[in-house]
Amino acid sequence: MNFSFSGYNSETFYDEMFLPEGQIRPGYEHLKNKFETLTSQELLNRQQTAERSMLSMGITFNVYSEGEGTERTMPIDIIPRVLTGREWDEMERGLKQRIRALNMFINDVYNDQDILNDGIVPRDLIESSKCFLPACMGITPPKGIWCHITGTDLIRGEDGTFMVLEDNLRCPSGVSYMLENRELSKQLFPDVLARTGVRPVSDYATRLLHMLQHLSERPNPNVVVLTPGIYNSAYFEHSYLAQQMGVELVDARDLVVNDGFVKMRTTKGFEIVDVIYRRLDDTFLDPEVFNPDSLLGVKGIFEVFKNGRVALANAPGTGVADDKVIYAYVPRIIKYYLGEEAIIPNVRTYICREQEDFDYVMANIEQLVVKEANEAGGYGMLIGPKATAEEHELFREKIRDNPRNYIAQPTISLSRVPCMMQDHAEGRHVDLRPYILYGEDIHVMPGGLTRVALRKGSLVVNSSQGGGGKDTWVLY
Fold it and tell me: Which fold would CATH assign to domain 91-158+203-338?
C-alpha cells in the first residue's frame, strides 16, 4: 500500500506543506508526488538508511538533559522542508541587514560607544553583560569584521510571518548537519531534488575558507580550526569543517605564541598561523587575559590578536550581541546605524529589568517563555504553559533576584512540518537556522538547518533537548 498524506492533520498551526484547506503549498508538489509513489515500508527503509548513515559518519552530539552526558547520533527526518525563492530572497535581505547592523554595533561598543552615549542602548546593560569583554576596548579586528559566522534562529508564527528568535554570534554550531542532511537527500531523493530546482549548499566549506583567508593581508594565509578537543559536543563538526576546507584541526597543545606570532607545531618545526576559526568560547581563549584556569586556550594569543598579527573568527567580544536582552534592542540598533526599519521583526520581548515589563511577566508568567540572558541550547528556559506552579514560582524568584538576566516572550505556536513517524506523517514544530558568512561581502547560505521538535507537542527544537533536523530546500 502506497504512502499517503491524506490522514495528515495540520490542525490550527501554520503548516509549511499544506494550506488550511488541505491543498499543497507551492514547491512541495514533486515531493508529495514522489512520496505517494512509494510504500510506507519503502519510506521507513529510507528513514532507517538515513539514520544508519548518520551513525556511520559519526555525527553525534551530547544530550545533557538526561541527568548525565549522553552521546547520540543526530536524529534526522527525511521529509524536506521547502521554501520558495521569493520568501527566501526577502529573508536573505533581512538577515544581511541585521548582520551589518550588529557588526556596526559591536564595533561601536568597543570603540566610540556612540549608541551608548546617545542612550539608544543603556550603558549599564552592556557593562553588566557576561559577554562584554573590557579587554576588547579600542580594538578593531581585521577588515573591521567581528561576526564572521552567524547562525540566526528564525521561527514562523501562526500567520506565516518569519521572526527572529535569537542571534548566535559566538560559536554557532549545526552547519555540518545542514551539509550532511543535503547529502542524504541527494542519496534518497535525487530525482525529486533535480526536478524541484533547489539551490545548492555544497559550496559552504569553500565560501567559509575564502572568507577566512580574506581576513589576512598575507598571500596564501595559513588557516586552522581551533577545537576545545574530542570531548566537546560539536567535535564532529570541528573536524568535519577542517577536513572539508583542507586545513589543520588544532587544539591548544598545537599552538604557541613565539616572536609575536601564533605558531603551529609541525613535524618540520613551527609554522606561522594567520587565521584561526576558533570553536571555543571567548573566556577560554587566553588564560593570561580571561579565565586563568583555562587549559583550552593559548597563552598570549590575545596580545597577538590585538597587534593584528592573527585573525580570530569570530572575534573575541562578539558575544555581547548574543545577550538575549541586547536582542530586544536590535530593531533600534538597525534603525540607529542604518536608518531602516527591521525587515525581519523580533518576537515581542519583555525586558525584566524594566519595571513595566517586570510587572507584566510576574503577573503572566504562566503564558510566557522566560529565558536567561546568556544561556543556549534550550537550557535556562521556562515554557510557562508547560510548566508547573512550582516551576513558575521558582522562575519568579530568579527574576526578582536578578531581573537584568531575564527576558520573556509570548509562547509562539511555531509552524509545523510533516515528519515520518514510523509508517505515517505527523506534524512537528520547527525553527530555521540559516548560516551567514561575513567576509568581503555578506553571504547567506540558501536554506540552513531546520531543527525539529521530535517529541509530540514540544516547542523545544534544540538537539541537546532531544530535537532533530531535516534538510531545507530553497527554490530558485
Answer: Rossmann fold (3.40.50)
